[in-house]
Amino acid sequence: MAKSTAENTFLRLKTVLDVLTEGVWSGDALNAGQVLAEATARVPFNEHEAELLSGGIPRGHKTLTSATAKLVKAGWLVKGRSGWTITEDGMRATVAFPDPVSFATALDTGAPVPADTPVPTAPEGFVRPVSAAAATLQAPAKEETPKKATARKTPAKKAAAAVGKAAKVLEDAVEPVVKAVRKGKTPAEATAAAEPAAAEPFEGPDVETHPQPEAVAVAGDFNTILGAPENWAPQYDEAQMEFDFLDQQWKKSAELPAGTYTFKIALNRSWDENYGAFGTFDGPNHELHHDGGTVTIRYDHRTRDITIN
């Protein structure tokens, strides 16, 4: 049975770290496009993920590119103009969380890598594996019954062929700059928080079950506190929320001083589509009466519901 988009995406996120770790061992410099292509080749798209979106980008590739923000937030990956760099914590995470369940749980709960986890070193006689991405694009298809081969292989081939183009397009278009301030957790607290989710972390709808906007911002009178140049300006990175594909919600966590604040939810870095109190289009401002400390704002695009805690 094909895995869900959520499970596949977590598997690909871990593969991103595995590929970058292998690059460190071999001394090879890999650009973001090569890393993403290798991750999607090692964990192939299911039929839903292989569907091409506008611009010829596979649905699963877009999901993965957005989800790499989780690796950045965890401190396991650094994105720069010269490429992607795995951190020591990122390499240690591949050892500390070797299976999909523990890896997914650690990313979702913010569990730190245990301090005694060693940085993995290359096995004796290590030779960098032949690129699975290159094999996907170049290897001839196996001879099978024509009808079955065409029905099953065509979407995957189209998706694989689009990966190189998609990586460049999405890297230019998506800039997941994560600056939300997260309260620190001790390993014991993180483990306790993770236990309920660890049982079946991949259940629930796939990421694309409801069309989502390209970007969602919390635009209000506290954006400058988050580091934006001005308030009420949804175009800045500091105001952007992050999509959680398991919860199907956009989220923004930040540290705010005690006070009363107002804001709206604005889509696609403009005011053309925005939602205020009670999810009303272009409605009155939301009010946030805050005692100080970390606050999390959530927006559900399916229902336009906005919650604060």
Structure description:
The structure is a single chain. This protein is α+β, with helices and mostly antiparallel strands and 309 residues long. Helix content is 38%, strand content 17%. The chain has helices spanning 5-26, 32-42, 47-50, 59-67, 69-73, 88-96, 100-109, 132-138, 146-173, 187-198; strands at 77-80, 83-86, 216-220, 242-244, 249-256, 259-267, 274-275, 286-290, 293-300, 305-308. Strands 3, 6, 7 and 8 form a four-stranded antiparallel β-sheet that branches. Mean pLDDT is 79; it is low at 137-157, 167-200 and 203-208.
List keywords for this structure.
four-stranded antiparallel β-sheet, 309 residues, 10 strands, alpha+beta
In short:
This protein is α+β, with helices and mostly antiparallel strands and 309 residues long. It has ten helices and ten strands.
What is the number of helices? 10
- Number of E strands: 10
Class inferred from helices and paired strands:
alpha+beta
User: Helix-strand pattern, N to C?
Assistant: HHHHHEEHHHHHEEEEEEEE
**Principal-axes shape call:** globular
List the helices and strands and how they pair.
Blueprint: H1 5-26, H2 32-42, H3 47-50, H4 59-67, H5 69-73, E1 77-80, E2 83-86, H6 88-96, H7 100-109, H8 132-138, H9 146-173, H10 187-198, E3 216-220, E4 242-244, E5 249-256, E6 259-267, E7 274-275, E8 286-290, E9 293-300, E10 305-308
Antiparallel strand pairs: 1-2, 3-6, 4-5, 5-9, 6-7, 6-8, 9-10
